[in-house]
Amino acid sequence: MRVCVCATPEQATARVVARIARTVRENPRAVLGLATGGTMEPVYRGLIEAHRAGLGFAGVTSFNLDEYVGLDPAHPQSYHSYMRRHFFDHVDIPADRRFLPCGDCDPAEAAAIFEARLEQHGPVDLQLLGLGHNGHIGFNEPGSSLGSLTREKTLTRRTRDANARFFRPGEVPPQSAITMGIATIMRARSIVLLALGAAKAEAVAEVVEGPVTAFCPGSALQYHRDVSVILDEGAAKDLR
Ligand code: F6R
Predict the structure, then answer these.
(1) 170 pLDDT more than 90
(2) Is residue 35 within 8 Å of 44, Cβ to Cβ?
(3) Which ligand 1 atom is the nearest neighbour of the CA of 34?
(4) Domains in the chain: ranges and CATH
(5) Distance 66 CA to ligand 1 centre (A)
(6) Does pTM surpass 0.90?
(7) How many Å apart are CA 139 and CA 155, to the nearest integer?
(8) Which residue, judged by its Cα, is nearest atom 9 of ligand 1?
(9) Of ligand 1's atoms, which has the minimum distance to the CA of residue 163?
(10) DSSP string, 175-193
(11) CA 141, 123, 102 angle in degrees (round to 5)?
């Protein structure tokens, strides 16, 4: 695990953008694993800027980590919508090569189809990850099997509370999501995890320095041969 502590969130974000851009420049047919959430919004802004400056995504295939169960792709808070709004509508990844789990299908079927697509187009060359306050990666909540594949996962109250900010007041955030499993994520050739701010510091310390345990799903990354953890000073503050 390579840990890189940047002075500011902007510098950490720029580092991740540069890493993704380099991957695509070196391999225009790269398979990218993508994430959503607040941390990733500036990453996509940076990639859109790189695209406007000439970086082409026309040969890229993308796989998103997760999607809420029960949300139509057109729902503004679905990850399908998030990805269109923050990235896909602004770059040239062909629509038939952007894969997200289907949120409004039978979850078991959607998960099997997603794994089959990964089998067909993968492996993922570079997987982008954020980190939950409870150590989740994708929506693999604490207690997730380290051998898990894509499946439906019930979200913890803490995750639902953290994500409630993206929903309209009174709207109940979904109770579960379809997420790549931990073993699915671990099949990526390279992984970049971005965590920013002191609120993530405890989870970061568990992921990087804690024991490998299903109670902190991100700790499984210690077993991967090519992981970069990019942090700002806030997120790094609990590292020894
Ligand atoms: C989203 C995802 C999640 C988020 C994590 C952090 O696709 O997989 O693991 O990366 O919940 O979210 P933010 O960045 O909103 O703190």
Answers:
(1) no
(2) no
(3) 7
(4) 2-191+219-232 (3.40.50.1360)
(5) 10
(6) yes
(7) 7
(8) 138
(9) 15
(10) SEEEE--HHHHHTSSEEEE
(11) 55
Backbone dihedral angles phi then psi of residue 235, each to the nearest 5 degrees: -70, -20
Amino acid 167: pLDDT: 92
Q: Is 171 a catalytic residue?
A: no
Q: Indicate which residue of 66, 67, 206, 232 is catalytic.
A: 66
pLDDT at 172: 86
Say which of 67, 115, 125, 141 is annotated catalytic: 141
For 1-24, the pLDDT digits (tens) are 999 999 999 999 999 999 999 999
Give yes or no for residue 136 CB within 6 A of ligand 1. Answer: yes
Q: Looking at this predicted complex, what is its ipTM?
A: 0.99
Q: Which atom of ligand 1 is nearest the CA belonging to 35?
A: 7
Query: Mean of the per-residue pLDDT values for the chain?
Result: 97
Does any ligand 1 atom lie closer than 6 A to the CB of residue 66?
A: yes
pLDDT per position as a tens digit, 57-110 = 999 999 999 999 999 999 999 999 999 999 999 999 999 999 999 999 999 999
